[in-house]
Design a protein that fits this description.
DNA Primase, Chain A; alpha+beta; DNA primase DNAg catalytic core, N-terminal domain; 5-stranded mixed beta sheet; Dna Topoisomerase Vi A Subunit, Chain: A, domain 2; single chain; 601 residues; 5-stranded antiparallel beta sheet
């Protein structure tokens, strides 16, 4: 990204209130001076995601994701820092000055820009070919699939020529070199054949990211060639697990859910029929990456996979993946038709909307498919079915949800709810005992060896916690700087990142008499470091502590940090370092003085 000044970065950050920005993505509830909600970065049922207007930072006490308003957009929207900065500048009406790139940044930015250019040129070329005599066969294919000119244009559909070096020659004539063409994934270059196209004689489907930039392609062969469908390989701009076909349109839908399909044509047919909330994974099974991407835009996903055996298996694989990230899932029944495209051609959009309205709860869908494996007329087989269902019902940790599903299953499969509940409780008890036995066995096996290891680890973790606690106290009560500066300096923070943060924090206070923790986060480029720094400023301080307890905790924390600092420097002190030795002597006297005095919050 361009090298913007700290002042510009801070102006953009300060003009985008973090509560306002995050409220667009997460439902927040105010508790005291802090806002809480369900974390968008992991699946949880109780809100451990906090947003502090005072600190202008967010932090999740569950998964430890945290940072400032830039970090949030980078994690949630998968933006680079530059993209987050530009988006927030536009939101706040801040004009960014034109800046120069560093050599490495310029090289990377140029490469990404050229790859996007190449994909855009290819898409335009395929789009043009479709309308020429050479693309007649592909156009007939799209028209046979009943696609309108408007839909073909909306999705930028095209055709790759039957000659296997046609696109290669076209792009070379546009001035692109072999090296960058090879990286685009559109061309393969070898010594024997020279340059030849990845896609030829195929109906082409451009794949766009959420910002409507062409990042890859899918192609359907015209004729009997294999494979029937072919996708771009992964490149610097194309990651199959981070993109969904049609999401660039579906992300702005006003409909309450997203429809998840299996193929490009299903998405296109649904959009043409007015269902602008349809998306599909890109030639791969649904992954947790896709699920997290979907969660950014919806809480409800309706699976509209093929109604054949393969489609049912795909749905059964997708349901737990979506559940894991907290998405509520339903399954649309399209029988007697195979897929949404066939269904809409046969019965129309209104009938498909009725199927959406009647979509089946995903758990009851799993149970219905499970039932097909058993002979419900045979008592033994029927009993086995009930046992398997009881095991599945144990997966609901909330009693209310579990009871509701027990009653629903009991009513549908003609078993007394109390009998099914008893069976569920039996399996739940077995699982609980097995889990406890396993945990107990693990503890016993760790034995003395584990205890020896933990002695050192606890001491280290305790010191980290003390340093983190003091940093949190300092930003929440800046009056402490004056009280402790005689005894504690940034040098006393012995963990490397804690030390760097302390230096910045103390410098802020010395310069202005105030602190700005959110600005400090922006000074670190690595997302992991940003989350860790957010954690340093969000140490848990028990709310129920009395003033006397807090004062005592403060003094004990400062003493521990100072003792640790002295011990740390003593070990590293060289035999001829007289200056270091004198500093240690002074610090030991300061420690003795500190232990005798009272420090108050």
């Amino acid at each position: 990204m361009p090298l913007y000044s700290e002042d510009i970065i801070e102006e953009v950050r300060s003009r985008n209130d973090i509560v306002d920005v995050i409220s667009q993505y997460v439902r927040l509830t105010r508790k005291g001076s802090t806002y809480f909600g369900l974390c968008p970065f992991h699946n949880e049922k109780t809100g451990s995601f906090s947003v502090s207007p005072n600190k202008q930072m967010y932090y999740c006490f569950g998964c430890h994701a945290g940072g400032n308003v830039f970090t949030f957009l980078m994690q949630y929207e998968n933006f680079t820092f530059g993209e987050a900065l530009e988006a927030l500048a536009e939101r706040a009406g801040v004009a960014l000055p034109k800046q120069e790139y560093s050599a490495t940044q310029r090289m990377e930015a140029d490469k990404r820009a050229r790859l996007l250019e190449i994909n855009k040129e290819a898409a335009k070329y395929f789009f043009m070919l479709l309308r020429s005599e050479r693309g007649k066969r592909a156009m007939e294919y799209f028209k046979k699939r009943e696609l309108s000119d408007e839909t073909i244009k909306k999705f930028g559909l095209g055709y790759s020529d039957q000659y296997s070096d046609d696109l290669y020659r076209y792009l070379r004539n546009k001035g692109y070199e072999d090296e960058i063409l090879k990286e685009s994934g559109l061309v393969t270059i070898d010594e024997r054949r020279g340059g030849h196209d990845k896609f030829w004689n195929r109906a082409m489907f451009p794949i766009m990211d959420v910002h409507n930039k062409v990042i890859g392609f899918g192609g359907r062969v015209m004729g009997d060639g294999e494979p029937k469908y072919l996708n771009s390989p992964e490149t610097k701009i194309f990651d199959k697990s981070r993109n969904l076909y049609g999401l660039n349109f579906a992300r702005t839908t006003k409909k309450p859910q997203l429809l998840l399909c299996e193929g490009y044509m299903d998405v296109i047919a649904l959009h043409q029929a007015g269902f602008d909330n349809a998306v599909a994974s890109l030639g791969t099974a649904l992954t947790s990456g896709h699920a997290n991407l979907l969660k950014r835009y919806t809480k409800d996903v309706y699976l509209t996979y093929d109604s054949d055996g393969a489609g049912i298996k795909a749905a059964l694989r997708a349901i737990p993946i979506l559940k894991e990230v907290g998405i509520t899932t339903k399954v649309i029944n399209m029988k007697p038709y195979k897929d949404p495209d066939e269904f809409i051609k046969a019965l129309g959009a209104e009938a498909y909307q009725e199927r959406i309205d009647q979509a089946e709860n995903s758990f009851l869908f799993e149970v219905r498919i499970l039932e097909q494996e058993y002979d419900m007329h045979d008592p033994e087989s029927k009993t086995s079915f009930y046992n398997e269902v009881a095991k599945k019902l144990c997966g609901f940790s909330e009693k209310l949800a579990r009871d509701n599903y027990i009653e629903a299953v009991a009513a549908k499969y003609m078993i007394a709810a109390e009998d099914l509940r008893r069976l569920v409780n039996q399996y739940g008890l077995k699982e609980g005992l097995a889990g406890a036995a396993s945990a107990n066995s693990d503890r016993q096996q760790s034995g003395i060896r584990g205890n020896e290891k933990n002695k050192g680890r606890k001491k280290e973790d305790g010191m980290k916690q003390s340093q983190k606690l003091l940093l949190t106290w300092l930003i929440e009560n800046t009056g402490l700087f004056q009280k402790i500066k005689k005894y504690i300096t940034p040098a006393d923070f012995t963990e490397e990142i804690y030390h760097r943060v302390a230096e910045l924090l103390f410098a802020q206070y010395e310069e202005s008499g105030t602190v700005n923790p959110a600005k400090i986060v922006s000074m670190f480029e690595n997302e992991e470091e940003q989350s860790e720094i957010a954690g340093l400023f969000n140490a848990t301080i028990p709310a129920a502590m009395t003033k006397e307890d807090r004062d005592k905790a403060l003094k004990e924390t400062i003493v521990r940090i100072k003792e640790n600092s002295i011990n740390h420097r003593s070990k590293e002190l060289g035999p001829t370092d007289m200056e270091g030795l004198m500093k240690l002597v002074q610090d030991k006297k300061a420690l003795e003085e500190l232990e005798r005095m009272h420090i108050s919050m």
